[in-house]
Design brief:
The protein is an all-alpha fold. The chain folds into 2 domains: about 1-50, no CATH class; about 55-95, no CATH class. The chain has 4 helices and no strands. Helix 1 (about 10-25) packs across helix 2. It starts with 11 loop residues before the first helix and ends in a 10-residue tail after the last helix.
């Protein structure tokens, strides 16, 4: 079975047929899992995997995690400021007081 499996295909019908052949070969008695069900499953899977926005969603989630990590590093915020504002204040102050010999521009 593995030899004849075309892993480059994104066609849900192809994968559903392959699955059903494998199911028969294994003599599985799962009658409620048929080709139509598998077409839907594989179509949804390939849509999620190949969604052009998926990479952007994952990158945004990573940026959000890093931002939250930065905000929660602020244990004490200034009165009448959000954690964001206090974090920005700390970063700005650190940037202004850093010796030129240590400073390196990013970009």
């Amino acid at each position: 079975m593995t030899e004849e499996l075309d892993r480059s295909s994104t066609d849900a019908n192809h994968w559903a047929k392959q699955f059903c052949r494998f199911k028969e070969k294994q003599k599985w008695s799962l009658v409620y899992i048929d080709e139509a069900l598998m077409v839907g499953w594989f179509a949804n899977y390939w849509a999620a995997v190949n969604d052009p926005l998926q990479k952007q969603i994952e990158e945004l989630a990573e940026i959000t995690d890093k931002y939250h990590e930065l905000l929660w590093a602020v244990e004490k915020k200034f009165p009448d400021e959000t954690r964001h504002q206090t974090a920005l204040r700390y970063i700005t102050q650190a940037e202004q007081t850093m010796p030129e010999s240590e400073a390196k521009e990013d970009g």
